[in-house]
Amino acid sequence: KVNDEKPVKFLMDTGASCNVISMQILRNVFHENNINLSKSNSILRTYDKTAIRPLGKINVLCSRGGLKNEL
After folding, report:
1. What is the tens place of the pLDDT at every residue in 52-69?
2. Which residues are CB-contacts of 69 (< 8 A; sequence separation ≥ 6)?
């Protein structure tokens, strides 16, 4: 669950330095069109070394099986 309310199915890559979610899914989770993202200076690289610039970053409270963590 995200923010203790909405279940979201996704695969978390525990070996990655970050996890990525689409803006469409993020808007659906928060029920808002205007999501307040922090600026990100990161450049993400895919397996084939293609560069992707994220729209921003956000920390969310996630829970699973009674454990909670801000990610």
Report:
1. 999 999 888 888 788 888
2. 61, 62, 63
